[in-house]
Specification:
With 318 residues, this protein is of the alpha/beta class. The chain has 11 helices and 11 strands. The longest helix is centred in the middle third of the chain and has 22 residues, at 139-160. The structure holds 6-O-phosphono-beta-D-fructofuranose.
Amino acid sequence: MNRIAVLTSGGDSPGMNAAIRAVARTCMFNDIECVGVMRGYEGLIEGDYKVLDRAAVGGIIHRGGTVLKTARSDRFRTEEGRLAALEKMRSEGIDGLVVIGGDGSFHGAKALHDLGFPVIGIPGTIDNDITGTDETIGFDTAVNTALEAIMRLRDTASSHDRLFIVEVMGRNAGFLALETAVASGAEYAVVPELPLSIGNLCKLLRNSYAEHKSHTLIILAEGVMSAHEMREKLQDTGGYDARVTVLGYIQRGGHPTSFDVVLATRMGAFATESLLIGKSGMMVGNINHKLVLSPLERAWSEHKSLSPELLSLVNKMN
Ligand code: F6P
């Protein structure tokens, strides 16, 4: 291989820039050229490429977002769009591609692999909903960002003896909500993976108010319902005055934690080296602190479960 391209696709996540840098620097280390594709698969079709030399990836390691920008491409979902992208890459002399993103991005990567083009995926999403890796790039930062906001909410919750329902992202999964709940010492985590009984929740709130617990926190995953909806459903808040906070896109921005930078750097180097030794159609994962490859389709065909240990900890600690 002489030229490898890298793109970011789907929702951005903190640490993507560190992964882009690691891909580019690993290419340099191996005396090959690295090309950055702008705006994900959309830029891949249009040929919106730029050479990533040493200077182009200098100073980005700690920056949030993605310097390559990201987009969701409807055109790439069609066979025509994919063939156009393939044609563009071949005409630019690109021999392999690294795709950084979530499972939607991996569907696109798999399609290119099936057309005979070498592709390796790197899991980058704050949702951590990808099987084949213990952590995705950006998850740790998003948990810490949510935690910082919740520590502020706790101050005002305790001053006013209030119940706060805090809605966090995560799409259809509860990883972000559960980890945030344990880290913040929240009393409840409401996640899509577990059935929710509003009646039971009201009862628990009544009990905790009766036990003189001055304030309470519910961390709600967006995949269950919105925090405003939950506030309406909780007719009986057990005596607490309830308030709602939606953390929203705050969780996607900001500079990555050291954990995410190190993970992204390891994954970027490993993905590039994997392409160079002829691997394709695989994603990089970090399992028990070790980097491994697994088929891209594992990301969407196998369910990733929430940690039973963390789930029981929320109950034990409340
Ligand atoms: O997948 C990351 C994520 O931030 C989810 O947590 C959220 O549901 C979604 O993206 C929001 O997507 P969009 O940027 O299209 O609004």
